[in-house]
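Priority: medium. Attachment 1 of 2:
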C-alpha cells in the first residue's frame, strides 16, 4: 500500500462572518459558503505548488449545508476553484457530523492509496451563522439520534453534559473540582487562541477583552456572563458557532519527495464508530470508541504516545478535551483534569502540547471544516510554518489529530509524521 502525504494546506479566517441588524434581525452574509470553499481550495493548491490540472478528485467535508446554507449537492461547486482544470473531475461530499472534514480526507486517502488518484484536494467548509440560535441548535441536533435525542429537545450541550455527569460521578469529581478542571481547559484554549490570527476568539475578541486566561477568571465571571447551558456545562465550556473553511492537498509520499514538496506523511489512521443512541452505551465516563481509534492509528504508524509532540483534540465541550486527553493516553483515566490543573499540555510541556491552535473553544468550530483545520494547522506546525502558538522546546516531528463526530460517535485519529 502506497504511503500518502499532505503537501499543502490552507485555513481561512474563522468567525461569525455575517452582519446582524439588531433592530430588524436581518442577516447579511459577508462571506458565503461558496466564497469559503473556493478560498480554501485555491489556498491549499497554491501552498502545495500543485496545479489544479494535477488533481484527480475533490472531496468536500460539510456537515449540514442544506440546513445551514440551503445548499445540498455542495461538492459540485468545487469546480469553481479552477473551472478550466477541475471541470469533469469527480467530486464527492462527505458527511459524518463534526468529523466530516476528516472523513473527507480519509476517502481521498483511500483513492490515492489505491492508485485511482495520484493527487487529491480535500476541502472542509461550514457556514453556520446565517441561522439564529434556535436554527443552529436544530441543525446540529439532526446529528444526534433523532428519535430519542433531537426529537425530545436533547441538544448537544445536553448530550455532552451526560458525559460530564458520568465522568464526575465515576471519579467522584462532582461540583467545584470538576468545574475548576473544565475552566482550566477553557482557559488554555483561550490563551492559545490569542496567538492564532485565524481564531474566532483571538486577540481583541471576547475572551481577550474579558481576560479569560486563567480558570479563576472564568470561574469568577458573573452568572449572566457564564450561564449554565446544560448542568454542569456553562457557556464557556462550549465551543463556538463558526463560519470557515480549510483545505489539504495530498499525494503519494514517493511522488512528493521526488517533486521536492514539503511533505507530512499520514502515518496511521483510526476510524471507529460508537453506537449512535447514547442510551445503549455501556458507560458515560470514557470514549471507548475513541480509545480503539487511537489504538489502530498508533499501531499503523508504529508509534507510542511518548513519540507524539503535539495533538489537536476535539474540544467541542471542555469535558471532551479531558476525555480525549485520556483516550490518547496522555493522561491516565480520571487524571486528565489534575494534569491540566498542574499546568500540563501547554506550549512549554515537556512531552506533548494540546490544541496550540486554541482548539474548537477559541479557534472556532465550523463543523464540516473542523477536521480539515486540525490537519491543516498540524501540517503547518510540522513543516515549520506554524500559524499561532508553537512548541518552545523543539521543532515537532509527530502530531496527532483526534476529531469526533456527533456525541463521540464517529472517532477519527490521524498520526502525522514529518518527512525528512
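Attachment 2 of 2:
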Amino acid at each position: 500500500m502506497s504511503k500518502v502525504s499532505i503537501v499543502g494546506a490552507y485555513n481561512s479566517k474563522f468567525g461569525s462572518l455575517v452582519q446582524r441588524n439588531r433592530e430588524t434581525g436581518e442577516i447579511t452574509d459577508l462571506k458565503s459558503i461558496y466564497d469559503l470553499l473556493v478560498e480554501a481550495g485555491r489556498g491549499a493548491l497554491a501552498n502545495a505548488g500543485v496545479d489544479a490540472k494535477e488533481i484527480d478528485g475533490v472531496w468536500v467535508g460539510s456537515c449540514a449545508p442544506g440546513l445551514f446554507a440551503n445548499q445540498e449537492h455542495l461538492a459540485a461547486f468545487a469546480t469553481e476553484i479552477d473551472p478550466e482544470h477541475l471541470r469533469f473531475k469527480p467530486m464527492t461530499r462527505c458527511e459524518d457530523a463534526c468529523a466530516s472534514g476528516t472523513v473527507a480526507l480519509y476517502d481521498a486517502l483511500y483513492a490515492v492509496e489505491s492508485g485511482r488518484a495520484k493527487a487529491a484536494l480535500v476541502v472542509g467548509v461550514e457556514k453556520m451563522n446565517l441561522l439564529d440560535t434556535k436554527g443552529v441548535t436544530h441543525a446540529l441536533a439532526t446529528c444526534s439520534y433523532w428519535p430519542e435525542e433531537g426529537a425530545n429537545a436533547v441538544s448537544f450541550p445536553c448530550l455532552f453534559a451526560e458525559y460530564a455527569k458520568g465522568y464526575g460521578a465515576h471519579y467522584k469529581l462532582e461540583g467545584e473540582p470538576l468545574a475548576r478542571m473544565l475552566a482550566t481547559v477553557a482557559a488554555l484554549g483561550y490563551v492559545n487562541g490569542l496567538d492564532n490570527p485565524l481564531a474566532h476568539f483571538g486577540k481583541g475578541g471576547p475572551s481577550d477583552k474579558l481576560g479569560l486566561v486563567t480558570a479563576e477568571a472564568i470561574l469568577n465571571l458573573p452568572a449572566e456572563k457564564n450561564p449554565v447551558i446544560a448542568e454542569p456545562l456553562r457557556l464557556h465550556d462550549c465551543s463556538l458557532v463558526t463560519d470557515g473553511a480549510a483545505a489539504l492537498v495530498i499525494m503519494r509520499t514517493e511522488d512528493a519527495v521526488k517533486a521536492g514538496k514539503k511533505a507530512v506523511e499520514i502515518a496511521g489512521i483510526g476510524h471507529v464508530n460508537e453506537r449512535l443512541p447514547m442510551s445503549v452505551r455501556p458507560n458515560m465516563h470514557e470514549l471507548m470508541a475513541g480509545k480503539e481509534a487511537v489504538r489502530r492509528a498508533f499501531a499503523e504508524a508504529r508509534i507510542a504516545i511518548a513519540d507524539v509532540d503535539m495533538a489537536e483534540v476535539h474540544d467541542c465541550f471542555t469535558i471532551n478535551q479531558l476525555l480525549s486527553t485520556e483516550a490518547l493516553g496522555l493522561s491516565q483515566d480520571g487524571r486528565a483534569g489534575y494534569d491540566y490543573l498542574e499546568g500540563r499540555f501547554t506550549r512549554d510541556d515537556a512531552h506533548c502540547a494540546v490544541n496550540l491552535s486554541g482548539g474548537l473553544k477559541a479557534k472556532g468550530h465550523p463543523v464540516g471544516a473542523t477536521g480539515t483545520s486540525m490537519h491543516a494547522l498540524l501540517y503547518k506546525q510540522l513543516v515549520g510554518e506554524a500559524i499561532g502558538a508553537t512548541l518552545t522546546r523543539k521543532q515537532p516531528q509527530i502530531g496527532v489529530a483526534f476529531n469526533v463526530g456527533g456525541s463521540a460517535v464517529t472517532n477519527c485519529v490521524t498520526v502525522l509524521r514529518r518527512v525528512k
